[in-house]
Amino acid sequence: MKIFREKDYDAMSRRAAQVIAAEIAHNPACVLGLATGSTPEGAYKYLVDWYEKGFLSFTDVRSVNLDEYVGLSPDHDQSYRYFMRSNLFDHVDIAPENTRVPDGLAADTTAFCAEYDAYIRSLGYVDLQLLGIGRNGHIGFNEPGDCFVKETHVVDLAESTIDANSRFFATRDDVPKQAISMGIGAIMGAKKVLLCASGEEKADAIYNSVRGPITPKCPGSILQLHPNVVLVADEAALSKLIAAGVVK
Ligand code: F6R
Q1: Which amino acids are annotated catalytic?
Q2: What pTM value is reported for the model?
Q3: What is the 164 CA–ligand 1 centroid distance (Å)?
Q4: CATH class of 2-243
């Protein structure tokens, strides 16, 4: 695992955007696996800025997102499709038909999840998978549990995830209780993984993912088995690895 130690959120965002931009420069028709949430917002801002300056183009890029809340329409301002449009898709030259976000309104979620996996396979899997991480170690919405789930699936969100995400909703009761998430199979099938983290509250999840036992109780720990992971994190998120002497 290659680890970039960055001073703060902005430096983390810039470094993450550089890794993504380098992937696009190297392979203009790459498949990007994308994430939502607070962590990648800054990186998306850099990518939009560099696109506007003419440094990169998304014309041939295809994207698949990690997850979506069950029950939210693409136009709901807290849906992940809306997030992707307002943070990236509407501001760059990616073709809308080349972007996929799980359908939170799918009537038959079992069939939808199977189709999502089939689509990812048809692309030859993801070239670069961007990941944030939950305080409990979740990646995508693969929550801690007794086993790793390979396929795209419907997840019951952990109470701690509902708590964490309630900051985006008027009340905690408004936070959807389920999501559709890409499974561990598609994440581990990516040729390269870019894991990003910022802030003290991610320090345990990052430590456990990098140095803890490989266990579904910390889903991020499976990344220790991936041959090509880049971790970009600020000093607060790396603080436990720094204290343990793992990161200089
Ligand atoms: C989002 C996702 C989640 C988030 C995680 C961290 O698409 O898959 O795993 O990356 O919940 O969220 P933030 O970045 O808001 O702390």
Answers
A1: 67, 136, 138, 143
A2: 0.98
A3: 10
A4: alpha beta
